[in-house]
Prior knowledge:
By secondary structure, the chain is mainly alpha-helical. The protein has a single domain (5-158), classed as Up-down Bundle (Four Helix Bundle (Hemerythrin (Met), subunit A)), CATH 1.20.120. It has six helices and three strands, in the order ααβαααββα. It has helices at residues 5-23, 38-60, 75-85, 88-106, 113-116, 138-158; strands spanning 67-68, 119-126, 129-137. It has a three-stranded mixed sheet. Strand 2 (119-126) and strand 3 form a beta hairpin. The chain starts with a helix and ends in an 11-residue tail after the last helix.
Amino acid sequence: MLDTAPLQNSYRALLDAAATVAEAADPGPAPPDGGWHADQILAHVSLVSAATIAAVAGVAAGAHTTYDNRIALDAWTIGQTIAHAGGNPGLRDRIGAQAAALGALAGGAALSDTELGTLVPTRLLSNDTLLVDQPVPLRDLVNGLAETELPGHTNQLLALLPQRAPLTR
C-alpha cells in the first residue's frame, strides 16, 4: 500500500502557488532566459502527471509500461496542452483532477506492494540533462513526483511572484 498523502499535499501546494501567481496584480518579471512562465510550468506538470497516471494504470492492467518525461519537455506539446486546457484556470482544474486520479490509482488497495515494486524502464531529463535512464520501481516514480518534481515546480512558480520591498517604519 502506498501512502498518497504526501502526493496530495504536494499537488495542493503546487495548485495554491499557481493560484497565488495567477491572482498577483503584478505577475513579476519575465522568467529568466529559457525559463517557463506559469502556464508552461503547469502544462509540463499536467503532462508529467498524465505520464505517471499512464504508468500506474499500465502496471495495474498488467501491461508492459515505460516512463519517459521527454514529451513533457517539448515546447510544441506544452503549447498545445495550454491551448487544449483553456489556459491557466483549465490547467489548474486539469492538474487537480489528475491529482485525484493518481491518488485513487496509486493509493489504497488499487495496487499491491508487488505491483508498486514493479520495475518500470524510466528515462528522466531536466534542462537537457539525463537524470535517470534505468528501471525504477513504480512506487519511486510516484514518490519522486511528490518529493521532488512537484515541490520543484511549486518553487519555480513562486519565483515568478514580484519581489516586494521590505516595509519600513
